[in-house]
Hints:
The chain is α/β, with parallel strands linked by helices. It is built from eight helices and 13 strands. It is globular, with a radius of gyration of 21 Å.
Amino acid sequence: MLLEAGPPDSDPRIRQPHGLFAGLLRGDLDWSYETVPQEQLRGRRVPLSAGKVLGGGSINYQVWFRGHRLDYDGWAAAGMRGWGWGWDDVLPPFRRSENHELGASDLHGTGGPVPVTTPKDVSPLSLAFITAGVESGLRLNRDFNGAELDGAGLVYSNIRDGERFSASRAYLHPAMDRPNLDVRTEAQVTRVLLDGKRATGVEYRRGGSTRRVYADSVVLCAGAVRTPQVLMLSGIGPADHLADLGIAVVHDLPCVGGGLQDHPSAVVS
Length: 269
């Protein structure tokens, strides 16, 4: 069973790449988070978008970026070794996911469900911008998921035949007819059900009522904000914080809900 807090990804704006994506942000398909006031920004709150729709990234910029290998190896060295987060662990599934226009290599794959492409019709202004970067001393980069991530160049996108190819469209839609798959949209998970320290199911809200579903295993993939929130609502997190909110503590885990880092972007017009 797959539970999604938002609606199905049937909105026609979702398939339209780039041109209409700005209209999806801060709208009905966006959780529309905001940060607390940031001291370094003179108290300004920063908007933080996350898809509230099947596929999650169905409202994103469609820029196909993987993390730098130092990020993954850094997580492993910081205590995640053996949990599948090192670069050598994540690279094989990265390659399996791709149908990359550069072809198969040590870093890229072909035949996967996600198309990885560059635009077929590039604005002359974009090419002039890249040329100016190279003339200023930056390296021309053909592949920002290659051996080197620095430089100037075109980014890759998850677009096929002029349409966005989200994770939902690539992985979920081809499996929709499977008899062992039950997809429920507009179903917001409120907490994980626990027997001691073992997950036995989830509680969720749908159609104005609260429901429960039981399972042998539970996979939380609610994003960088909602996943720790669900854990804390389930009693897993910093004990003092949970106690302040009247949540019974199942497992005191101070790191849950802290340490969020995001990549800031500056849009130049």
